[in-house]
Amino acid sequence: MQPNNAQITVQGKTIELPIRKGTIGPDIIDIASLYKKTGTFTYDPGFTSTASCESRITYIDGNQGILLYCGYPIDDLAEHGDFLETCYLLLFGSLPNRANKKEFDHLVQQHHMVDEQFSRFFQGFRRDSHPMAVMVACLGAMSAFYHDSIDITDPQQRNIASIRLIAKIPTLAAMAYKYSISQPFIYPLNTLHYTENFLRMCFAVPCETYSINPIIARAIDRIFILHADHEQNASTSTVRLAGSSGANPFACIAAGVACLWGPAHGGANEACLKMLEEIGSVQRIPEFINRAKNKKDPFRLMGFGHRVYKNYDPRAKIMQKTCHEVLKELDLKDDPLLKIAVELEDIALHDEYFIEKKLYPNVDFYSGITLKALGFPTSMFTVLFALARSVGWVAQWKEMIEDPAQKIGRPRQLYTGPSKRNYIQIQKRP
Ligand code: CMC
């Protein structure tokens, strides 16, 4: 056997498959030739043992609780950088120097405004529509509004579509919020920093001056950095799969937003806050812990557990710190939900069930409390996640499109339905 090969025997036939090494992380057995050589497929529902692509963007070590964007630890980026710096890093693979940063910030700022027809597009929605439903529609509609940047074979159009997505999603997210509360849309102000601009578009009203609290703006910026990318999660894989057919980037990101909405993914922060409200008091925590442990009860502790992290989610630590900072700044240190969260976390971290299954708090555990304190309704939580993740989706989509080896994603299946049978005309069926 060749060194660096894996050997597999299928129905008496032994073949060798190459083992590929990444920069860090587990080796990969390249099974691309398996079907050709043996006539068999692999079966891995939920992709628990399958790498779907090669990527240079994000690395996660779930056992050690490490998250790197292009090699840089998430803690450093969240502590010292800003969201647009992270966007630049994810898109171009290196940190910008001062001139690059200035130019990039300016470029994004120039694209915040959306086509004026969007304000009429919004009028078609009920005011009580879930803002994630509105976001899915708005992202899909972007391909109609920005038709001049959907030719994916043109690198310039790909770049402009990427910048448009990163710049306009905050505007659309703020519009979705304003529409839901029947307030006038606030136009972006290009002199403001990305996050300040977003806060102003969400919370300013035309009849009052709006002043930005720098601690709050910093907290939101950090939340955006934490959510910017997370390698091949469900929504990113959705974006890649949609993009593999050659679909335009706006349509692909719309697919990503739709996937993110699910409660097992981006919807978890909303679900977590609802759970904390349902628990209602510290005394009721044991009841809910017992429910989470009961196999017959579908209830799960929201904000706990992760497919990849079998240790404390590194984003959760930063989120926890940010949450405390925000509540202190807003004089909400005694928030009853925070008390329940702190106690719940402590009890779960010392419970045999959670220890044995390696269930730790994830990023969503504290983000809901923080976003609520900042004044966002629960229905907006996943929208903020989508806003931040849009850069990760765009970076991963671009990486895939620019890979010369890229081909349409087309998984196979284990068919367990009926084998061929004869069609019986309806008159003759029993
Ligand atoms: N509460 C109670 N038990 C749990 C939980 C939980 N939150 N999460 C997993 N388990 C149990 C599960 O019942 C299973 O037990 P058993 O082995 O006895 O059948 C075991 O732990 C493994 O769970 P799994 O569902 O096979 O693990 P998974 O990797 O498929 O699921 C997850 C990961 C995140 C969907 C899951 O942990 C979960 O539903 N958590 C709550 C929702 C949540 O907080 N999601 C946000 C994820 S972080 C944000 C993001 O990146 O999108």
Structural commentary:
- The structure is a single chain.
- The chain has about 425 residues and is mainly alpha-helical.
- The chain contains 18 helices and 6 strands.
- It has a 3-stranded antiparallel sheet with strand order 1-2-3.
- Strand 5 and strand 6 form a beta hairpin.
- The longest helix is centred in the middle third of the chain and has 26 residues, at about 155-180.
- The chain is globular and about 75 Å long.
- The structure holds carboxymethyl coenzyme *A (CMC).
How confident is the prediction overall: mean pLDDT? 95
Helix content: 40-55%
The major pleated sheet works out as:
3 strands, antiparallel
Terminal residue distance: 59 Å
Order of helices and strands: EEEHEEEHHHHHHHHHHHHHHHHH
Q: How many helix segments?
A: 18
Tell me the β content.
Answer: 5-15%
Query: Which stretches are low in confidence, meaning pLDDT under 50 for 5 or more residues running?
Result: none
Task: Give me the side-by-side strand order of the main sheet.
Answer: 1-2-3
Structural class: mainly alpha
Q: What small-molecule ligands were found?
A: carboxymethyl coenzyme *A
- Overall geometry comes to globular
Number of strands: 6
What Rg is obtained from the alpha carbons, in whole angstroms?
A: 24 Å
SSE blueprint:
Blueprint: E1 5-10, E2 13-20, E3 28-29, H1 34-38, E4 58-61, E5 66-69, E6 72-73, H2 74-80, H3 83-92, H4 98-109, H5 117-123, H6 131-145, H7 155-180, H8 194-203, H9 214-227, H10 234-244, H11 249-260, H12 268-279, H13 285-293, H14 314-329, H15 336-349, H16 352-356, H17 364-373, H18 381-401
Antiparallel strand pairs: 1-2, 2-3, 4-5, 5-6
Helix pairs in contact: 2-9, 3-18, 6-7, 6-11, 7-8, 7-18, 8-9, 9-14, 9-18, 10-11, 10-18, 11-18, 12-17, 14-17
The structure holds carboxymethyl coenzyme *A (CMC).
